[in-house]
Amino acid sequence: MNVLIVHAHPEPQSFTSALRDLAAETLQGQGHQVLVSDLYAMKFNPVASAEDFSERANPDYLVYALEQREGVKAGRIAADIQTELDKLLWADLVIFNFPLYWFSVPAMLKGWIDRVLVSGVCYGGKRFYDQGGLAGKKALVTLTLGGRDHMFGEGAIHGPLEDMLRPLLRGTLAYVGMEVLPPFVAWHVPYISYEARQDFLRSYQARLQGLEQDVALEFPRLEQFDERLYPLQRPAQ
Ligand SMILES: Cc1cc2nc3c(=O)[nH]c(=O)nc-3n(C[C@H](O)[C@H](O)[C@H](O)COP(=O)(O)OP(=O)(O)OC[C@H]3O[C@@H](n4cnc5c(N)ncnc54)[C@H](O)[C@@H]3O)c2cc1C
């Protein structure tokens, strides 16, 4: 399979970068093709703006998604976006590898999402969730964070990690049609021992080697909704 690792960490020696390297080595060792988009190393521009289009369908008023839709058809989107989009369309599995920043993704990765998940290709009209433009591809979110695992979950001080990842897992990856695998999380990374970090690397490697057995998370399917996207069946009270 073709694998794209989208990596967002400013320090090449970071533990998050070690997870990236391990994923690349492990998957290549299994005979998969791996590409890495190292966003900081590439100095990726994370700002969606009018400069992303060499010509505009509407030069007077920027509607970014509409310009994406027209621009991608006409070959008018910025070269760095087109390059990333080509990698994305090539991939069967996309791994998003990053440290949690403010209950979310680093701005660098958010910018990659804003610019590369191009309207008209990845989603648009009623092409979302299981009908999204990236249906058939898998997504794995691999993240590091500072908090301890007992601080996350129902009733815990920060609440469930799934809640803070919702904009990414549901609002982005499931929305564009990807099959979203359960995230891999390395907790409390800066504060644990070297050995404990090595344990995370070992469990990540085992997880990657058994990826075929992973059961994807569940998200809405358009067949469960009517033409106006009202649910066909109300959930049981
Ligand atoms: C802006 C910002 C917002 C944040 N928001 C949150 C938040 O909302 N919630 C939260 O919980 N945390 C948050 N954090 C903390 C952040 O998520 C963690 O600091 C980060 O995930 C730790 O991972 P790292 O790769 O940066 O670790 P690093 O600090 O790079 O590495 C930790 C240690 O691992 C060592 N290491 C490197 N490679 C290896 C290896 N192969 N084997 C063993 N050890 C190795 C490094 O030398 C270092 O000593 C935030 C941090 C920032 C900067």
Describe it for me?
The protein is an alpha/beta fold. It has one domain (2-224): Rossmann fold (3-Layer(aba) Sandwich), CATH 3.40.50. 32% of the residues lie in helices and 13% in strands. It contains 7 helices and 6 strands, in the order βαβααβαβααββα. Strands 1, 2, 3, 4, 5 and 6 form a 6-stranded parallel β-sheet that branches. α1 links the parallel β1 and β2. The longest helix has 16 residues, at 194-209. The chain is globular, with a radius of gyration of 19 Å. The N and C termini lie far apart (43 Å). Flavin-adenine dinucleotide is lined by residues 9, 11, 13-16, 18, 99-103, 144-147, 189-190, 194, 197-198.
